[in-house]
């Protein structure tokens, strides 16, 4: 699966106007232009045309109800009655993007202000743009909102598996299934770990040996024997069967300590297929990886915060379960046994540089908490036997550490390449009061 292709906001597009008002005649063109603009930005569009009376609003709402859209976008071309949007939303209660077009005599912005007043009273999610229909900063703002609406629905439909249990002594990674479903969206699917391991043992050598040959061919060096590598491939193939059987969007395995190294390569390979496999039985972390995978279209890092350095950067890493795509240099990728236990296979390499978004997701009383950090990953050496990621934040490191302690943030940080903080802020607002967003 290509997560970038699966993450395309599906948006209903219309233009709102009142027939008497100046500017109403531009409604058909505005509806078509907004639809074309959103398609050019990566949306799938359901075109509704101009809406100027309740009958058209109801017909548009019914069409959207059958189209399963993530959001509806309105081009406001003149002043318009608020009930045009409200009647549509009775049939399709999707988040609303209002794009008001400039015009001194049209009253478009005035109409949008009265509609947003009503929607806010109803608690209905809405984002507003006031600009000509064109590429640029306002389109970027609009797309952040639309991508957040798509993320919201994808998370609500997602199934996240857990095989085994979370690590003893890591209480903050424990999943609250009711609260997760209510505030974030995914349903948790318990997986039978002994059955998974039995199934791995039943897989024929031939496909596992072929998969191992492919993996070693993509690595620069291999320090483990073929028998160990083939065993890791059997685990990978068995996990893939579970993913397909249960329709999982992500999963986690209670690997620490006894399965350390045995499931790490499965994590590396599945990440490249758009399926995050989180470490240490941390369902919350797997969900965080899923969020970033969807938003960035790339594999993500599952990390611990390790060491602040004298230059103001911070090293994050885990044991070596990252996708090969996360390496700065392919010639650095080494297959080796896992640290501490000296068993299995891990992919070891320094992580590539670039802008990164880091999140931590944990349960809290009454819901969930999402912590958000944004920074710049810099090149680093192999300072830890895993996938070290060195990050520079805008804030002084001591300020970030104090914030983590003050907010009670957990220790697992999921990192994705790209700046998707705006999307996550919008998503948090869409998630409702049960989700608490914390950021510096």
From TrEMBL:
GO terms, molecular function:
intramolecular oxidoreductase activity, interconverting aldoses and ketoses
Q: Could you confirm whether the keyword Ribonucleoprotein appears in this record?
A: no
Question: Per the record, what is one GO cellular component?
Answer: cytoplasm
Is Acetylation one of the keywords? no
Q: Which SUPFAM superfamilies match?
A: FucI/AraA C-terminal domain-like (SSF50443), FucI/AraA N-terminal and middle domains (SSF53743)
Keyword annotations for this protein, in alphabetical order, are:
Carbohydrate metabolism, Isomerase
Q: Which residues cross the membrane?
A: none
Can you supply a Gene Ontology BP term from the record?
monosaccharide metabolic process
Task: Report which residue ranges the record marks as coiled coil.
Answer: none
Signal sequence segment: none
Per its record, how is this protein called by name?
L-fucose isomerase C-terminal domain-containing protein
Q: Which organism is it from?
A: marine sediment metagenome
């Amino acid at each position: 699966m290509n997560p970038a292709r699966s993450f395309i906001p599906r948006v209903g597009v219309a233009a709102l106007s009142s027939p008497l008002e100046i500017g109403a005649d531009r409604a058909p063109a505005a509806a078509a232009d907004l639809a074309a603009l959103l398609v050019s930005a990566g949306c799938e569009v359901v075109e509704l045309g101009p809406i100027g009376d309740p009958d058209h609003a109801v017909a548009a709402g019914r069409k959207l109800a059958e189209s399963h859209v993530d959001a509806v976008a309105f081009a406001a071309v003149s002043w318009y009655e608020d009930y045009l949007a409200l009647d549509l939303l009775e049939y399709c209660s999707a988040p609303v993007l209002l794009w008001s077009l400039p015009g001194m005599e049209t009253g478009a912005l005035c109409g949008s202000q009265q509609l947003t007043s009503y929607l806010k009273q109803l608690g209905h999610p809405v984002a507003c743009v006031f600009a000509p229909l064109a590429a640029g900063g306002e389109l970027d703002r609009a797309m952040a909102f639309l991508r957040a609406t798509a993320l919201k629905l994808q998370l609500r439909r997602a199934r996240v598996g857990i095989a085994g249990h979370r690590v003893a002594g890591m209480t903050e990674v424990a999943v609250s299934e009711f609260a997760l479903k209510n505030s974030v969206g995914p349903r948790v699917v318990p997986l039978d770990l002994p059955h998974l391991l039995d199934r791995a043992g039943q897989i024929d050598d031939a496909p596992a040996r072929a998969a191992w040959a492919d993996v070693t061919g993509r690595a620069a060096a291999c320090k483990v024997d073929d028998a160990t590598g083939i065993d890791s491939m059997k685990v990978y193939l068995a996990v893939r069967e579970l993913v397909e059987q249960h329709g999982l969007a992500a999963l986690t395995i209670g690997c620490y300590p006894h399965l350390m190294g045995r499931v790490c390569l499965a994590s590396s390979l599945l990440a490249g297929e758009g399926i995050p496999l989180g470490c240490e039985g941390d369902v919350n972390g797997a969900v965080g990886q899923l969020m970033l995978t969807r938003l960035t279209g790339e594999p993500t890092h599952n990390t611990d915060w390790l060491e602040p350095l004298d230059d103001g950067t911070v090293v994050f890493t885990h044991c070596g379960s990252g996708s090969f795509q996360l390496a700065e240099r392919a010639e650095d990728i080494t297959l080796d046994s896992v640290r501490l236990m000296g068993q299995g296979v891990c992919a070891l390499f320094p992580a590539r540089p670039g802008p990164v978004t880091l999140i931590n997701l944990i349960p809290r009383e009454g819901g969930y908490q999402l912590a958000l950090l944004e920074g710049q990953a810099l090149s680093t050496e192999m300072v830890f036997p895993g996938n070290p990621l060195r990050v520079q934040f805008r804030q002084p490191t001591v300020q970030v550490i104090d914030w983590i302690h003050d907010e009670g943030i957990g220790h697992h940080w999921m990192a994705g390449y790209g700046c998707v903080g705006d999307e996550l802020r919008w998503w948090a607002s869409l998630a409702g009061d049960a989700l608490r967003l914390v950021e510096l």
